[in-house]
Amino acid sequence: VWSCCGCFCIFHLVCIQKWAKDSLFLVSSPLTDDDFGKKDYPWPCPKCRFEYKRSETPNKYYCYCGKVENPTVDPWLVPHSCGQICEREFKPPCGHKCLLLCHPGPCPPCPKMVTTSCHCRKAKPVPRRCSTKEWSCRLPCGRMLLCGQHTCANPCHSGRDCQPCPRVSKQQCICGRQTAERLCASPQWQCDQVCGKALPCGNHTCEQVCHAGPCGDCPRSGKRFCPCGKSKFTLPCTEDVPTCGDSCDKILECGIHKCLQRCHRGPCEICRQEVEKQCRCGKHTKRIPCHKPYLCETKCTKIRDCQKHQCRRKCCSGNCPPCDQVCGRTLGCRNHRCPSGCHRGSCNPCPEIVDVKCNCGKTVIKVPCGRERTIKPPKCKQLCSRPPTCHHPTQEKHYCHFGRCPPCRQSCQKTLTCGHLCPVSCHDEALVKQTGIHQFAGPWEQPSEPAFIQTALPCPPCEVPIPVFFIFNFQVSPLPCHSAGPYSCKRFCGRLLGCQNHTCMKECHRVTKINSSADEKKAGPECLQCEEECTKPRPLGCPHRCVLPCHPGDCPSCLQMLKIKCHCKLSILYIECLKLTSADVKEKDLLTSCKNQCPKQLPCGHRCKEICHSGCCPLNCNQKVKLKCPCKRLKKEIQCSKIQEGQVSLECDALCKEMKRKASEVKEAEAKAAIEEEKRRQQ
User: Which of 16, 62, 165, 540 sits at a 20 to 30 Å CA gap from 340?
Assistant: First the structure.
């Protein structure tokens, strides 16, 4: 890996080498051949854009402190660390070095204790951390300011130079003619009056604006040259220098030709000589006056530095100007477009600042544009001012927030039908699961997550205890107000239902006896009817459920058809479930066979001759195969299994050997004849 010294971000060494190479290529690609190599272009860090020279491209793997090359892996150390003391100098440098073990990221502030005094040196030295050794005693500075009249009144501050004097005083200009109130920090100033003092010649006055010191000699005194500079005259300052009458010979603006006029005052004329000029792009030439530039109509087809648009400038010299079109790409904030000129690479971050407010708008924080989507709104300390959504006149006090207000936790206090007040928490906005609204079109539609709706629930039954008198036992027992009627113990009935498998789960209720001899544990007409499915175990191998609902006794035989594949997996068979589950192994093999020839291929390459069967195919292949002798004259049909076992082989007979001998003799004779023919041809 490699670590950036600007942001300390860690990159793979191969990745940063490729990044540096690509960056240098992108910077140097629009250059012409004349400009290439004249400047050492830097490459930036991918994260912080800290620039490095081409020679600083990493080519070796070092630890974080840079002491060890290719540090070894140690499970007890930080990865890529050498385990030695860092000893890098602190930033800003203080003379001490980092004492931590080789570590990633920046070094911490210097922890050394030093004895230092304050900025103004008035307070006694105190021991402090080296990283925070500069401190202020907060006493007035008292140093003399540059104006020389006042002292610094600011508290003890850093730096040798104090701030400019903020006071105002009357100060004269440089020539001393005007006086004005100005800041003490800028005592020297110039007025706008011309000096006007008489020069030593006595004929002219000084034309300089407000200056210090003597005015100097008259600029027209002494030896003076003619306008062309060839002749020198000694004249009084009241006379102008005459022209010498010689040719001017000054170099004109073109820098090639000389002025052909006689010595004259003022600037020379433009060069009017006709020369053959080459246009700026170097493709055309033409004879025109020297002072006129020659530009052809050919448009440049080079790509500008943005690597997107052509130059399209007439008669371009090759150094195309930067692209003048607006970039216009959407910035990372997704709100604005790039206002810069068309450029390569990614655009700069959006410079706009956006306000992120709380719900009431009284608390505001400023964030860069684009981050308002991800940053959390500020926490507001103001109380929520929304009106209550329930029947209470006021809601509970809580802070400003987004979304719905929290549910009301005050007591309901609504009057019930019995006359009592509802004591439970407010239930005007309870969340209720919404079910059974959407009808599915088929099994391909998957049920979504249950939706919750906010609705008002009715008040629960009144739980105020009411004394109730029971006739049979002559007792007064307190019962809830809503159930002050026929008494029920609230337990399950527990009577055995007609299916003989389940009991009645209805709440304790009255049961009418049909006859006096009936068992008290049996269910009556008021009990629930069993609606469960049959849960009795099925025969081994039967995947179907019992077709009857919950019933007493044994389940009926399963007559449904099973859809299975045969042994060879080519045919689909339909078999009664009862036959398949009651059959033994041999009968199951017969039932699951399609009675067709097995399609499997034997190792010898022939198809199995057996009828559709389970397991592996037999290896005794009875297919007739032609066997030939080595010379392929004799042929014989033999079973394939015998050939695979190596029991049979066919050898050549005497006739085969005789024919082979005669063929070899014929070949030898032909070879000898060919050799004799070659010898005759060479002779």
Answer: 16
Question: What pLDDT sits at residue 68?
Answer: 92
Cα–Cα distances in angstroms (integers) from residue 70 to residues 5, 59, 64, 125, 343, in the given order = 19, 12, 11, 47, 40
| pLDDT per position as a tens digit, 425-484 | 888 888 777 765 566 666 676 666 667 777 888 888 888 887 765 433 344 567 778 777
Q: What is the separation, in whole angstroms, between the first and last Cα of the chain? A: 81
Q: Which tokens in the block code for residue 618? A: 């037999």
How far is 7 from 14, CA to CA, in rounded Å? 19
Q: Tell me how far apart the alpha carbons of residues 152 and 142 are, in angstroms, rounded to a whole number.
A: 5
Coil, helix or strand for 446? coil
Q: Is-contact 251 241, C-beta < 8 A?
A: no
Tell me the torsion sign for CA atoms 614, 617, 620, 622.
positive
Residue 270 to residue 253: CA distance in whole angstroms: 7
Residues 6+ apart with CB under 8 A from 8: 104, 105, 106
C-beta separation of 439 from 400 below 8 A: no
Q: Are 106 and 92 in contact (CB under 8 A)?
A: no
% of the chain surpassing 90 pLDDT = 12
Residue 494 near residue 450 (C-beta atoms within 8 A): no
Domain ranges of the chain: 113-183, 561-592
- The pair of structure tokens assigned to 666 is 């014929």
Secondary structure of the chain: what % helix, strand, coil (to 5)?
10, 20, 70
Q: What is the 3-state secondary structure (H, E, C) of 641-683?
A: HHHHHCCCCCCCCHHHHHHHHHHHHHHHHHHHHHHHHHHHHHC
Contacts 24+ apart (CB under 8 A), 611-620: 612/566, 612/567, 612/568, 612/571, 613/567, 613/589, 614/567, 614/589, 619/644
Question: What torsion do the CA atoms of 537, 539, 544, 548 make, to the nearest 10 degrees?
Answer: -60
d(C-alpha 463, C-alpha 477), whole Å: 14
* Cβ(249)–Cβ(232) below 8 Å: no
Q: What does the block give as tokens for 547?
A: 């077709």
What's the length of the chain? Answer: 683
H or E segment to which residue 180 belongs: strand 179-183
Q: Tokens in use for 93?
A: 């440098």
Token pair of 156, please? 């003890």
Q: In this structure, are residues 529 and 497 in contact, taking their beta carbons and an 8 Å threshold? A: yes
Instruction: Count Cβ neighbours within 10 Å for each residue of 336-370 and write b for 16 or more, e otherwise.
Output: eebeeebbeeebeebeeebebebbeeebeeeeebb
Cβ-defined contacts of 56-59 (< 8 Å, 24+): 57/17, 57/20, 57/21, 58/2, 58/13, 58/16, 58/17, 59/17
Structure tokens at 6: 């600007």
**pLDDT tens, 304-342?**
878 888 888 888 887 888 787 888 888 888 888 887 778
pLDDT the model gives residue 641: 75
The tokens describing 319, both together, are 């150094």
Angstrom distance (rounded) from CA 205 to CA 195:
8
* C-alpha 457, offset from chain centre: 47
* pLDDT bucket at 37, cuts 50 / 70 / 90: very low
Q: Where are the beta strands (DSSP E) in 12-50?
A: 43-44
Work out the angle at residue 365's Cα, subtended by the Cα atoms of residues 360 and 368, and round it to the nearest 5 degrees.
Answer: 130
Helix (H) or strand (E) holding 3: strand 2-3
Query: What residue ranges in 520-602 does DSSP mark as E strands?
Result: 561-565, 572-576
DSSP string for 454-505: EEPPPPPPP--EEEEEETTTTEEEEEEGGG-SS-----B---B-TTSS-B--
The conformation of residue 55, written as its DSSP 8-state character, comes to G
User: Nearest CA to 590 among 610, 613, 569?
Assistant: 613
